[in-house]
Write a structure and sequence with these properties.
The chain has helices at about 5-15, 30-35, 45-55, 90-95, 115-125, 150-155, 165-175; strands spanning about 20-25, 60, 70, 75-80, 85, 105-110, 140, 160-165, 185-190. By secondary structure, the chain is α/β, with parallel strands linked by helices. The protein has a three-stranded parallel sheet with strand order 3-6-7, sandwiched between helices. A two-stranded parallel sheet has the order 1-2. Helix 5 links the parallel strand 6 and strand 7 (about 140). Helix 1 crosses helix 3 and helix 4 packs parallel to helix 5 (about 115-125). The mean pLDDT is about 95.
């Protein structure tokens, strides 16, 4: 969920590495562009990886579908007036998958957020589905750590930190990221 600067390249990397991927964004114009092989992300290699992903079966949509893993790549904006983080995008992403969440799912938040965002904002939103984290589904946090100008290289080669209060959630997330990450994958129990 989220086909921006981190979401689209990550979706493409997963698709070319054997995963069936449906990328979701609310913007139908961006969906149309992506499905035509066009991207607004001006990064070295981005058009080629998108083309390969589309050939591998990747598609963009405005609708969330059932999945084994939901990767939320949405931004957290600054509420200038109150000088606080605005978690609206995370809340909306969680709401969009609530009715598709099923036992065994992994939900990964990949964004730049304050400590505790997964635990205190994302998980309570997901549990409105009636399912419980660590019992029915696994909530994982993987901080986004890529610098513009070298995006694909960094997504592939940077070390990753995977945080979850559940060991199985960390292992499932590692399996997913290991499909394309060449850097070390490190664990923490913080979310």
């Amino acid at each position: 969920v989220g086909l921006g600067y981190i979401g689209l390249p990550t979706a493409c990397l997963l698709a070319v590495n054997g995963y069936q991927v449906v990328g979701v964004t609310r913007n139908s114009k961006i969906v149309d562009e992506i499905n035509k092989g066009q991207t607004r992300i001006k990064e070295n290699g981005m058009e080629q990886i998108l083309s390969s992903a589309l050939q591998s079966g990747f598609t963009a949509s405005t609708n969330v579908t059932d999945a084994d893993c939901f990767l939320l790549c949405v931004s957290v904006d600054l509420d200038e007036k109150n000088k606080k983080c605005d978690y609206t995008n995370i809340i909306q992403a969680a709401e969009s998958i609530q009715h598709h969440l099923k036992p065994g799912n992994v939900v990964i938040l990949e964004s730049t957020v304050t400590p505790g965002t997964t635990r205190y904002i994302l998980i309570p939103m997901l549990e409105k589905s009636g399912l419980k984290t660590n019992k029915d589904f696994f909530a994982v946090y993987c901080p986004e750590r890529a610098i513009p100008g070298n995006l694909l290289h960094e997504l592939i080669n940077n070390n990753r930190i995977i945080g979850s209060t559940n060991e199985q959630g960390r292992k499932l997330a590692k399996e997913i990221y290991s499909s394309f990450v060449k850097g070390q994958i490190l664990f923490t129990d913080e979310t």
